Amino acid sequence: MRSPTPRTWFWLNFKKLWTVFFVRRMWTVCTRRQAHSVSHIHGKLFESCCSAECGVAPVVDLESYASQNLPRCGCSALMRPNVCWFGEQPYELERVYPELERCTTFLAIGTSGFVQPVASFVSLLKQRQQARTIYVGLTEPANATLFDHVYLGSASALVPQVLETLRRES
Ligand SMILES: [Zn+2]
After folding, report:
1. Domains and CATH numbers, the chain
2. Separation of CA 71 and ligand 1 centre (Å)
3. Residues with Cβ within 5 Å of ion ligand 1?
4. Is the peptide bond before 160 cis (omega within 30 degrees of 0)?
5. CA 61 to ligand 1 center in whole angstroms
6. Which of 28, 71, 141, 146 has its CA 20 to 30 A from that of 54?
């Protein structure tokens, strides 16, 4: 039987891995293929939501707006990008923390290691000694010492190699 490519292996084992994607291209790939499995803790840039949080569901929004013509919700409040701004609570944390409890391999791609609560995910895992933690990115994150493995370089080049290593070890 032919061995799966690293990419195929990743998607076959997606639910076993817990990956923080900061690399936009990868995030897009995840969104397309595994939309139900991805927690968009920082929201979705191409959606708009009600700034008054009136309960209307976010909508896909690919438009550009002039400042004098901003869209409004049916409740008359301004619509805003459905993203988490600094100082706001990230979305779906109620899904994230149980997944961290089950996580056995944690792969962070391209994070600064500064922004909370995401920067603390690896320290939670380190305290529990339950998961192998891997970082891939162009520069060393602030919390680099908490990762078991740190690979510096282009994620597009390194992630397939990391996935191939994980596939061989599985
Ligand atoms: Zn509204």
Report:
1. 6-42+89-169 (3.40.50.1220), 43-83 (no CATH)
2. 11
3. 50, 52, 54, 56, 73, 75, 77
4. no
5. 15
6. 28
